[in-house]
């Protein structure tokens, strides 16, 4: 039996809405109620924080509770009038109404459409398991979903559905929106239907996705393509959720963000560098962090973990009890240190930089503030490689004091030519800091005056407690031509030799 509208003075729409109220979902699609974009109800509860995804309540609309009403097309059927629905063999459909020889159905596969299909062309079907679908990812957490969607293989609009972590038996929809991931909880109604918004029930995840692909403004994020999995799908052992870390005390702030003393899992003291995303080239961050993971040396600060999914980015390292070398040298305890201790600091930094030289890593911001001191007076180089992640307008001569001009080689300050030999220049400035107990180089000069004086041949004078042979090494580090400056391997050998002679003289 066909559904034939009987037009009257009020037109087709009021007649059908009155006589077939159970199809109001369908009528709303073909006769929208003139709502503007501002009137479209939006899902609330999308977030970037590790909290359960929340569905949004909207005005309920009629959609029949799903029972055993799934069908599969046995043959191709071409619609013969506007009321009928064309289907292809294998299409899955959901029966909205069974009327004699016809079924009024919604197509679940392909573009969402609704219409009449002869029952002889259909067979009842069992619900399709989500595991058959490319967008369903079983057994992954919220964090792993974010990691997948933010990977280079996926672009904005990539999406997946996964089992909910906070609702047993439920699901969550995760969608990539530029540099972040939004999560929505998919709820199950008492009748068995699925919904993102109360009142918009769907018989399956497939039907729900088909609807929100078309009506993506309701969730403010287009669903363009299923997430591309990584092979193998395994969480990086370095990547940890932010919830594992508690920030307790701010230790300082620099070009790369704030540094905090924190606790890892409530017991392990750590240092947490909170990266200021507004100043960073986040697209390069993953590559740089990979480099940090591969660098292991006793004179380099040890990386414990990272939190790189979402913002802000955490870089978690070992905590050095006495803080950075520049501040420590200026403290009462630091000012009481003898020459052997100062020379020991110089040797340790040279050892760490020699290792970076071997690995062809350019630090770009070597200074006493980026060397950390432990309770046993061990020194470790920190922040190696991070300067390359700073945006040009933050780390450039045109931005005034943002670039550490007084520590930077002339070719790097003027032309942004960074190399291992520009690091050697900075090491010479660090030696000056060490033997002046943390004094600022070129004190009283502006950055512009500093560059002018250096171009005219001026070099920092020898500090009072600095041995003459150490000062000779400083001057070699400050050669105008980078090729004439020594390597870190040479500096390490010469400083160790001076250190040994000093100890022999004291004994």
Automatic annotation (TrEMBL):
Domain named SH3: residues: 66-127
InterPro entries per the UniProt record, alphabetical: Kinase-like_dom_sf, Non-receptor_tyrosine_kinases, Prot_kinase_dom, Protein_kinase_ATP_BS, Ser-Thr/Tyr_kinase_cat_dom, SH2, SH2_dom_sf, SH3-like_dom_sf
Molecular-function GO terms, alphabetical: ATP binding; non-membrane spanning protein tyrosine kinase activity; protein tyrosine kinase activity; signaling receptor binding
Main location (coarse class): cytoplasm
Alphabetical GO biological process terms: cell differentiation; cell surface receptor protein tyrosine kinase signaling pathway; cellular response to nutrient levels; negative regulation of TORC1 signaling; positive regulation of TORC1 signaling; proteasome-mediated ubiquitin-dependent protein catabolic process; protein deubiquitination; TORC1 signaling
Localisation: Cytoplasm
GO cellular component labels: cytoplasm; plasma membrane
Binding annotation for ATP: 273
Record-annotated Protein kinase domain positions: 245-506
Keywords from the UniProt entry: ATP-binding, Cytoplasm, Kinase, Nucleotide-binding, Phosphoprotein, SH2 domain, SH3 domain, Transferase, Tyrosine-protein kinase
Catalysed reactions listed for this entry: L-tyrosyl-[protein] + ATP = O-phospho-L-tyrosyl-[protein] + ADP + H(+)
Subunit structure of this chain's protein: Interacts (via the SH2 and SH3 domains) with DOK1. Interacts with KHDRBS1/SAM68 and VIM.
Reported function: Non-receptor tyrosine-protein kinase which phosphorylates DOK1 on tyrosine residues. Also phosphorylates KHDRBS1/SAM68 and VIM on tyrosine residues. Phosphorylation of KHDRBS1 is EGF-dependent. Phosphorylates OTUB1, promoting deubiquitination of RPTOR.
Family, similarity comment: Belongs to the protein kinase superfamily. Tyr protein kinase family.
Protein name (record): Tyrosine-protein kinase
Organism annotation: Rattus norvegicus (Rat)
Lineage: Eukaryota, Metazoa, Chordata, Craniata, Vertebrata
Gene assigned in the entry: Srms
């Amino acid at each position: 039996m066909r559904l034939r509208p009987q037009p009257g003075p009020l037109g087709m729409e009021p007649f059908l809405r009155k006589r077939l109220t159970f199809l109001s979902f369908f009528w709303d699609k073909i006769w929208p109620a003139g709502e503007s974009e501002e009137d479209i109800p939006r899902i609330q509860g999308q977030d970037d924080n590790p909290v359960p995804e929340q569905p949004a309540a909207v005005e309920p609309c009629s959609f029949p509770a799903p029972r055993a009403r799934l069908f599969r097309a046995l043959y191709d059927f071409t619609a013969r009038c506007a009321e009928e629905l064309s289907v292809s063999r294998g299409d899955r459909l959901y029966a909205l109404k069974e009327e004699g020889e016809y079924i009024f159905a919604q197509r679940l596969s392909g573009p969402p459409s609704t219409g009449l299909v002869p029952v002889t062309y259909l067979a009842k079907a069992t619900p399709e398991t989500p595991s058959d679908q490319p967008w369903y990812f079983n057994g992954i957490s919220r964090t792993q979903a974010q990691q997948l969607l933010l990977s280079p293989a996926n672009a904005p609009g990539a999406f997946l559905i996964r089992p909910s972590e906070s609702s047993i038996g439920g699901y969550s929809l995760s969608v990539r929106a530029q540099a972040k991931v939004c999560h929505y909880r998919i709820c199950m109604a008492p009748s068995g239907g699925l919904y993102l918004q109360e009142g918009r029930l769907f018989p399956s995840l497939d039907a729900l996705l088909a609807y929100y692909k078309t009506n993506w403004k309701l969730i403010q994020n287009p669903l363009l393509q299923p997430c591309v999995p990584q092979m193998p799908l395994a969480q990086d052992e370095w990547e940890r959720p932010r919830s594992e870390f508690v920030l307790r005390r701010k230790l300082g702030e620099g070009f790369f963000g704030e540094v905090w003393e924190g606790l890892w899992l409530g017991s392990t003291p750590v240092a947490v560098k909170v990266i200021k995303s507004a100043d960073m080239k986040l697209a390069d961050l993953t590559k740089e962090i990979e480099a940090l993971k591969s660098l292991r040396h006793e004179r380099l600060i040890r990386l414990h973990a990272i939190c790189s999914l979402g913002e802000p980015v955490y870089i978690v390292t070992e905590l050095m009890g006495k803080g950075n070398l520049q501040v420590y040298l200026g403290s009462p305890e630091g000012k009481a240190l003898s020459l052997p201790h100062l020379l020991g600091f110089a040797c340790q930094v040279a050892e760490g930089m020699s290792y970076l030289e071997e690995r062809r890593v350019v630090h770009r911001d070597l200074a006493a503030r980026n060397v950390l001191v432990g309770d046993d007076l061990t020194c470790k180089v920190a922040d190696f490689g991070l300067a390359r992640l700073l945006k040009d307008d933050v780390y450039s001569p045109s931005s005034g004091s943002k670039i550490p001009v007084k520590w930077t080689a002339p070719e790097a300050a003027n032309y942004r030519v960074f190399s291992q030999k520009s690091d050697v220049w900075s090491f010479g400035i660090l030696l000056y800091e060490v033997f002046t107990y943390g004094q600022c180089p070129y004190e009283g000069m502006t950055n512009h005056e500093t560059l002018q004086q250096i171009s005219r041949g001026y070099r920092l004078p020898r500090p009072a407690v600095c041995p003459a042979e150490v000062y000779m090494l400083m001057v070699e580090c400050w050669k105008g031509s980078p090729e004439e400056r020594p390597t870190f391997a040479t500096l390490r050998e010469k400083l160790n030799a001076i250190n040994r002679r000093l100890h022999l003289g004291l004994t």
